[in-house]
Amino acid sequence: MKKIVLALASAAVLFSMVSCASKDVEDSDLEAPEGFEMEVEDDGLLHLEYKYLGMADGSTCTSIPAAQVITNKDYSKPHPVDIYCDAPEYVEFAGEKCVKIPSNGDGNIRVIWLFDEPVPADSVTRFAFSCAGLDIPLDNTWTANIALMYNNDITAGEHATAMYPLAAALDGFITKDIDLTSEEGIAGLWGNGFKPEGEFLGIQIYYGGRDPIFIKDLILE
Fold it and tell me: Which end of the chain is more exposed for a tag (fewer CB within 10 A), N or C?
């Protein structure tokens, strides 16, 4: 019996010493000795500073008739396909209020501002947008794109689009303003240009990477 009591007492003392030592380490500001620094795993993402302002909604920082910003469904298909993704956030980046879009479980970004109701294509002539968070030059033709998505026109298993390159900077926003009736507007990206027939169901952004992007000033008029 004495041995058991002594063993329990010793264990209690040892636990107390470990707890105190742990508290001392947690409460101290001591740096790790040279050669024993902790290694932080690099996840390969750009961690840009921004200020969280709340959850984003469709009308945040836009001039379009959209009540929803949807990141967890792929609307490019004839019927929306579920994808895993965090919700978009309303933030301040580079001194500007904007919407932060995260990457999804497929390792890319695919987001849509879904219009409250379809917008007739022949009722609009101007499409503008501003993007930040990535290093994508104005002459980009493949890394990221933004598209007006047609409602009922299905081509090769996906909704047809009026698609345009998306440019962005790491330290601020790059704005593009497209006259849909101009040569650029009609040509679009990869032959996916604007035509004044049919209706648009929303504005989709696609980026084939995992870094988040920041969007503001979406305009369709």
Answer: N
